[in-house]
Specification:
The chain is mainly β and 394 residues long. It is built from three helices and 29 strands. The protein has a five-stranded antiparallel sheet, with no helix packed on it. It has a four-stranded antiparallel sheet with strand order 2-29-28-27, with no helix packed on it.
């Protein structure tokens, strides 16, 4: 005779709920679950992170760069460390940073890094040799740099910081712009000169949009692998909803190419010089991955069955991508290697995240490969402060 025969439905439901809660508590004790070796970079009462997923913190010497933010400080430290041993070195500080993309910190070579800063009342980009600490300062902040280091892109980071907290900077008290102001600037890094500017009006006309300057902004600038094109998001705030449209600019042809004017685009990666993989929201709750062909000006679904939630994609090879998820009902985020051929994925890591799922302080995994694709870094908040993690084969 089973004891449960004497329990009322209410008591059974209560016991079931307790067991379920205990299982969740036990699972959450394992903050990062993975079969790979793992390295964590962190300091007490400090947020340690790299930023966005479209840049890698790795150079080719098994070194990583990242930022550290101490409580109640308005700046971040720029840090160099080794993946294989603790060789931490603070290189500089920056006041131009945010919670989602930090200061657009990146490697330019195995020895040089680039990041944005705020100096003497304006935004700049600093290039530092991590061995000698010699540096030069560019008179503009950079959102992206092409692989040849010839050109850079920037936008109004104050406008972005006001209209999309967590992505821009807020070091200035105010800014003024109109429809003829530069929405995107293309600069020659060697000569410190602006070679092309796209105004809000030019982009609005190309997208056939009537817009309110107080409710539109630019975000997510990214050069194509060969540096001949760059993509961008045009975002309009409609009844509190940030709807992002996507376009590409052909530098040689001086041509704006609209790619997505109907659905909301979210995250992106260049597959090659003519194709962009993007997550888009078909409805506010339905997200899919699509491949955009620039020359043909069309799109088609990528992995129709296994990718049903938004993520931050990176290319592994011709048939595989790396991506992640937002926290599920149990608070877990997943790091996934997706196989396009089989329309399937493999979980590389499960990460329990402190439940801050929205707003500028949320912690997305933002996974990034090293150059050999044998190590992955990601940001995670598993104890109330962020850490930078690296996983790799043992």
């Amino acid at each position: 005779m089973r004891v449960t025969q004497f329990l009322t439905p209410g008591i059974k439901a209560c016991i079931k709920s307790i067991v379920f809660s205990l299982k969740r508590i036990i699972k959450r004790r394992k903050r990062v679950v993975t079969n790979y070796s793992i390295v964590e970079f962190c300091s007490p009462r400090t947020d340690t992170f790299f930023g966005y997923y479209d840049i890698t913190p790795f150079n080719n010497n098994e070194e990583v760069i990242y930022v550290e933010h101490h409580e109640d400080d308005n700046s971040v430290n720029i840090v160099l460390n080794s993946v294989n041993d603790d060789a931490k070195k603070v290189l500089a500080t920056s006041r131009a940073w945010n919670w989602q993309q930090a200061c657009r910190l990146r490697w330019l070579s195995n020895d040089e890094i680039s990041f944005n800063d705020f100096h003497e009342g304006d935004y700049v980009n600093r290039i530092i040799d991590v061995r000698t600490l010699k540096e030069k300062v560019l008179p503009f902040p950079l959102y992206d740099i092409d692989k040849k280091r010839e050109y850079g892109l920037y936008l109004n980071f104050d406008r972005l910081g006001k209209l999309r907290p967590g992505y821009g900077y807020t070091c200035k008290d105010s800014f003024r712009e109109d429809q003829d102001s530069a929405a995107i600037s293309l600069v020659d890094i060697s000569t410190f000169t602006v070679v092309k500017q796209l105004s809000y009006m030019e982009i609005g006309d190309a997208f056939k949009r009537k817009f309110d300057m107080d409710k539109c902004y630019i975000n997510h600038l990214s050069f194509s692998p060969d540096g001949k094109l760059f993509m961008f998001f045009w975002i309009e705030i409609i009844n509190g909803y940030h709807k992002a449209l996507m376009g590409v600019y052909d530098i040689d042809k001086k041509l704006i190419i609209p790619l997505e004017l109907e659905y909301k685009v979210s995250h992106y990666v260049w597959l090659d010089n003519n194709r962009i993989l993007c997550t888009i929201y078909l409805t506010p709750s339905e997200c899919k991955y699509f491949v955009y062909n620039i020359s043909e000006k069309n799109k088609h679904p990528y992995c129709k069955g296994c990718l049903k939630v938004d993520g931050h994609p990176s290319v592994y090879d011709d048939k595989h991508i790396l991506t992640d998820t937002y926290p599920d009902a149990d608070g877990y985020q997943y790091l996934r290697l997706v196989d396009e051929t089989n329309d399937s994925f493999k979980n590389l890591a499960e990460v329990f995240s402190v439940p801050v799922s929205s707003g500028e302080r949320r912690t997305d995994l933002h996974p990034r490969f090293n150059s050999s694709k044998k190590a992955i870094s990601f940001d995670a908040n598993i104890r109330g402060y962020r850490s930078l993690f690296v996983i790799k084969e043992a």
